[in-house]
Amino acid sequence: MMKQASRKSDKVMFRNEHPDLSHSREEILAGLQTTQKTVNPKWFYDEYGSQLFDQITRLPEYYPTRTEVAILTENCEQISARCGHGCLFIEPGSGSSEKVRILLDTLQPSAYVPMDISADFLQSAALELGSEYPWLDIYAVCADFNQGWSFLDDLPAGKRVVFYPGSTIGNLEPNLAAEFLIRVRDMMGENGGALVGVDTHKSSDRLNAAYNDSQGVTAEFNLNVLRRLNEVMDAEFEEDSFHHHAFYNTEARRIEMHLVSEREQSVRCNGGTVEFALGETLHTESSYKYTPQSFAALVEAAGLKLAQSWMDADELFSVHYLERA
Ligand code: AVJ
After folding, report:
1. For position 9, what pLDDT does the model report?
2. What is the mean pLDDT of residues 112-123?
3. Which atom of ligand 1 lies nearest, measured to the CA of 222?
């Protein structure tokens, strides 16, 4: 026991880059003042929201998580060979570092670098992972990966591979997704790579069901953003005055999640008010879906290429290994 405890402490390192969260209020306010009111989906994920998302991943209608897990599990050898044993495996927005566990034993990275903006959560997740994988070097970095990667300069040299599962990239507007991939390319260097999970374009029925589950968990997840706004903005949004609306926009190939105002209302917010007409919406999330072709085009716009792709037999989800073009 003693031995494991001491090994744990020198294998798990923690670094706090103190991500700057101070622009939150201005950012949210700006989104509430545009014609189509919007709020960034990152506000879904407080503790309750993260629990709800966890429930979503287990819903019968929500296929992405279990399908991605199956793809990673079934292709673990090939994927690990692509990434390269002994690589530095970097995960922006690592959360509870759930999916990396599928790969670790086979991949045998030289180190794992989880990055997250929540310091406490990151630290406990890294310690937990470290106790399960006592051989693994973990450099946990509390940082906003949109604010640069310079801290990576202090990490051991070697091939860098960025792990970005879960179709999180789908939350970004395509132009911002391309910008994100450009930053990934810069960070991974000449011979590095990226392993990215992407939800696929498919029948509207299937997609609409995944974001309108029969148990109403997604609706609760969506409405939870109002609680966050109330906290952060000192606002008085009432959950009963809005309802969940999600649909697949086939033209834009994205799920749109909205909160629809059930009446004309004036909501106190940040010392002022925000006006809603009856039926007016707050756009809370876009979740873009890609075909292998449309994702290849996005990747190419960022100076990268698809080196290898994996999908399940029903083509519900895809995992791509990217390299410099
Ligand atoms: C975590 C962004 C991949 O878009 O499917 C699930 C979030 N929203 N149900 C997704 C989400 C509603 C999820 N991502």
Report:
1. 63
2. 91
3. 12
Helix (H) or strand (E) holding 282: strand 281-288
Probe target for ligand 1 pocket from 96, 287, 319, with the most ligand atoms within 8 Å of CB = 287
What does the alpha-carbon distance between residue 322 and residue 325 come to, in Å, rounded to a whole number? 9
Q: Write the CA distances from 199 to 36, 66, 137, 168, 312, integer angstroms.
A: 25, 12, 31, 9, 11
User: What token pair was written down for 298?
Assistant: 């996005």
**Within a 13 Å sphere around the CA of 66, how many CA atoms are in the beta-carbon half?**
11
Q: How far apart are CA 175 and CA 172, in angstroms?
A: 8
Mutation probe of ligand 1 site: the residue of 40, 51, 167 with most atoms within 8 A of C-beta: 167
237-278 pLDDT, tens digit each: 999 999 999 999 999 999 999 999 999 999 999 999 999 999
The residue whose C-alpha atom lies closest to atom 11 belonging to ligand 1 is 53
**CA-based nearest residue to 318, from 296, 302, 301:** 296
pLDDT at 4 over 60: no
89 DSSP β-pair partners: 112, 161
Pocket of ligand 1 (CB under 6 A): 56, 64, 166-168, 170-171, 211, 218, 285, 287
Q: Which two tokens stand for residue 204?
A: 């509207």
Q: Is the pLDDT of residue 179 over 80?
A: yes
Q: Which helix (H) or strand (E) holds 321?
A: strand 317-324
Q: Hey, what are 122's tokens?
A: 């990151």
pTM of the full structure: 0.95
Query: CB of 56 within 8 A of CB of 130?
Result: no
Cα–Cα distance measured from residue 237 to residue 255, given in angstroms and rounded to the nearest whole number: 24
Strand 160-164 and strand 12-16: the pairing is: unpaired
DSSP 40: -
- Residue 279 in tokens: 């039926």
Half-sphere exposure of 257 (CA within 13 A, CB side): 26
In the sheet with 242-249, reading across from the earlier edge strand, the strands are 37-38, 281-288, 254-261, 242-249
